[in-house]
Every structure is written in C-alpha cells, then in structure tokens.
Design goal:
Distance between the termini: 36 Å
Radius of gyration: 51 Å
Largest sheet: 5 strands, antiparallel
Strand content: 15-25%
Number of helices: 9
Number of domains: 3
Bound molecules: adenosine-5'-triphosphate, magnesium ion
Helix content: 40-55%
C-alpha cells in the first residue's frame, strides 16, 4: 500500500527541485547575459575615455600591487595615430586596429578577443578584452546569482517534509485512536481536525459502525426473543413428560403421548422457522435463474393440498398467466409455503383459498385470497415483525412466517402486500415481481 505522506513528500520535493533547477538555470543565463552587456558597456566607456594625449603604454600597464592574473582581467588599449606606430597599453599586444567604429571579435595569438573600436578623424582608439576573461567574469556572476536558490532548496525540502507531516497528523491521530480502541467498541470515530477530503471516509466508517451496532443489537434481540419463544413450548413439553408418568390407563397414556407429540412438533416448527429466519436475514445475495412462476406456485399448492383437505379447505389455482421471472426457486418456495400455510391456518374449516398468477405490463403478481378471519386493520403494519401474532385465531404459530417472507422478498426484489378483502371476510396477499429484473 502506498503511503500518502511519502507520496506527498516525494511529489512536493520533486516539484520544488524541478522549479528550483529551472529558476537557477534561468538566473544563471540571465546573469551571464547581463554580465556580457555590462562588460561591453565598460569596453565602450574605456574606449571613449582615451584621448590623444593619453600616455600609452604607461597609462595602463599595471596598478600598484596588481597581480599578473588581475592584469589579465583588464583591458588592452591601443591608439593609432597617423604616421606613428600604434601605441598599446601592453607592448606585446599588436592586434591590428579596426577600420570601423563598433564591437567586433577577433582571434589573436590563439585566443578570442572582444573589441570596441572608435574611429576619430585624427586617430583610432581600440579597446580589447580576452573572451575567456569575459566568460569567467560572467560565469562567476551567474554562479553567485543562482547560489541563493541552490542554498534554499534543501531548506525547502525540510520544510515540505515537516509541513506534510503536520498536515497529515490528524489522520495519524485517528489511525492511532482506532488502533488503540477496544475491539468491541463501536462508538463513532472523532473527526476533529480531519482534513475535508478525509472527512467523508470517517463519516462512512461511522455510519458503518452504526449499522453494525444496529445489526448486533437486532441480533441480540433476536436471540432473546427466540429463547423466550422456545421457553413456553419447552416448559409445556416438560409438563407433558411429567404427566406421562402419571397416566392412569393405556387410553389416557395415548392421549398424553399425542399431546407430547404435538408439543414436540410445535417446538421443532419454531426451531425450523428460526433457522430459516436466521438464514434469510443474514444472506443478501441469492443465486437466481429464470423460472416459470405459475409452475412454482402450483408445486407449492400441491404439497399443501393434503393439509388443506384435512380442514376441508378448497385450495386451488383460479388464474395462471404465463410469467417467467428471474429468482431463486428455493427461496420462493419457502415464501409461498409460508403464505399458503397462513391462508390455510387462518381460514375456518370448509373455507376457500384462491391463488392467481396475473401478468400486467412489466409485472407479474401472485395473489392468495382466503375467506378466513382477516387481520384487524390497525395490526396490519406489524404482522411482518418477528414473533408478532395478531391473535385473531386459535391456530398455533410462532409469528416468524411473515418475517421470513419479508426477508426473502427483499432478497428477491419482490413486493409483498397484505390487505383485508373488501367484498367479504378474509385476507388478500399479493406478491409482485418485475418481469424484466435480472
Ligand atoms: N391469511 C391470514 N389470515 C389471517 N391472519 C393472518 C394471515 N396470515 C397471517 N396472519 C396473522 O399474522 C400473524 C403473523 O403471521 P406469521 O406467518 O408471521 O406467523 P405465524 O403464522 O403465527 O407463525 P409461523 O408462520 O411462524 O408458524 C399470524 O399470527 C396471524 O395472526
Ligand atoms: Mg405463518
């Protein structure tokens, strides 16, 4: 993983160095150019200040205490008068005197010279300076001009490293606080002093922590509720076992064994429902395939017909539109089993449960209509809650069926609606699917 701090430091230092080098280079070139212009100007001034009476070579030989090297840096002045030998400030220097005024360059004794010539009517004055000397002076000036930048660069690097560390300190503080916190702690991370760019990350982490906290809380409640729900049937079982030993006759024994069997069935039904609940509330993704909705519903009906027949309930399909949907068949079977089971359970003996598959536009809907007791309107919003029972019927139940239906519907992107019938007593449950959903 790349370190933000290292990247920021490397980029800033790199950029500063590049800018420093360019600025240094430009200063160097400008100082060099400036020195050239200045030396040319000097050359012209010296040439202009030499008059015909100047005593050459005595005038410009060597100043008191001037070294040979320093003398080299100076100018060589030549004055040419008609009918006289050319006078020169350096006797060994006899560069031919130019014919026109102005700057020129010449190679003399294997060395390049910069020359300024002034042609007067009665004399010609020529001042020369070795190009190597000029270049040395210009380079020195340029070097001095770029020296401050070179000196400041390392200081900038240190300041950048320090600045980056300081800017990222709040992030480092958060990391430390998260590292040191208790593994079970789900309190929000303090976002004080956090840079604006990192704040959304902290907000997201905090909202995730909140969701985890809610989910843990809901799991804790689930376990408590489940234990509570199981306590009653288990206590009943205990009582029935105790009763069994006190049976007076074989007939009495048979009745009590049947009660025990029923109690066992009830307890194992609750456990089975709890297991399904835990599974569907936990999993979010399902493996889907295209399936025929009518076929699936018919299969669920066929498995429940024996149960319905026991109570003389007429369970059947009244409409079967062709509908192909994308869903998980096992999930849908559990969903419809629960809804059909409710319709049978909460409908009095001899009642009727009509199932219909209907396609309209881009949606397919399965409706289960019974003529049972229905659910009091004010309790309808609560029937999807875990362990909630409307208490509208004596039929046994754990109150988990519709919570499972709800969890599966969410997974399968289906919509479940419960409504009391308007035309008669009974409930209408509609499960609708998007035909084009993948
Ligand atoms: N078709 C229906 N007619 C009348 N009441 C219903 C119907 N379906 C559900 N209910 C009411 O809603 C409550 C919740 O139903 P749910 O299926 O969640 O639990 P249950 O049937 O009591 O138990 P479980 O299905 O877990 O065995 C039921 O107790 C019942 O009061
Ligand atoms: Mg049920």
């Amino acid at each position: 993983m790349k370190s933000l701090r290292n990247q920021l430091t490397v980029w800033s230092v790199g950029l500063l160095t590049l800018v420093g080098l360019i600025a240094g280079g430009i200063s160097y070139l400008l100082a060099q150019k400036g020195a050239g212009v200045f030396l040319d100007h000097q050359l012209r001034l010296v040439a202009g200040s030499v008059d015909e009476g100047s005593q050459l070579p005595a005038m410009q030989t060597r100043f008191l205490g001037e070294s040979e090297q320093q003398r080299q840096y100076g100018f060589v002045i030549q004055v040419s008068l008609p009918k006289e030998a050319v006078r020169s400030s350096r006797p060994d220097f006899d560069l031919p005197v130019g014919k026109a005024s102005g700057y020129s360059e010449q190679v003399y004794q294997g060395e390049k010279w910069r020359i300024y010539t002034i042609v007067y009517p009665d004399r010609t004055v020529q001042v020369s300076q070795a190009d190597a000397v000029r270049r040395a002076i210009a380079s020195d000036a340029a070097l001095f001009a770029s020296l401050p930048i070179a000196g400041l660069l390392p200081l900038c690097w240190v300041l950048v490293a320090f600045g980056v560390k300081r800017i990222l300190k709040p992030l480092a503080d958060v990391t430390l606080a998260v590292t040191l916190r208790d593994a079970r702690s789900l309190t929000p991370i303090a976002a004080k002093g956090i840079p604006a760019e990192a704040a959304p990350l902290i907000t997201e982490i905090n909202s995730l922590l909140l969701r985890i906290q809610e989910s843990m809380e809901s799991q804790r409640h689930f376990v408590l509720d489940a234990a509570h729900e199981l306590r009653t049937p288990l206590a009943a079982l205990q009582l029935q076992i105790d009763n069994l030993s006190q049976s007076l006759s074989p007939e009495d024994m048979n009745v009590r064994i049947n009660e025990l069997r029923f109690g066992m069935q009830r307890a194992s039904h609750i456990v089975a429902q709890l297991l399904k609940m835990a599974r569907y509330e936990g999993e979010s993704e399902s493996i889907r395939s295209r399936l025929d909705l009518g076929e699936l519903v018919k299969h669920c009906i066929s498995t429940l017909i024996p149960v319905a027949e026991k109570s003389g309930i007429d369970l059947g399909m009244v409409r079967d539109d062709k509908a192909s949907i994308s869903a998980n068949a096992d999930d849908l079977r559990i969903l419809f089993d629960n809804l059909l089971d409710n319709a049978i359970h909460y409908t009095q003996d001899g009642g009727k449960v009509d199932v219909a598959v209907e396609v309209s536009g881009s949606r397919a809907a399965v409706s289960i209509v019974d003529n049972g007791c229905g659910i009091p309107e004010e309790l309808l919003p609560r029937v999807f809650d875990r362990f909630f029972r409307a208490g509208n019927n004596k039929a046994e139940g754990s109150g988990i069926g519709l919570a499972i239906v709800n969890a599966i519907a969410r997974r399968e992107n289906a919509e479940v609606r419960l409504a009391n019938r308007q035309d008669a007593k009974g409930l209408i449950v509609t499960v609708s699917f998007d035909l084009h959903a993948l």
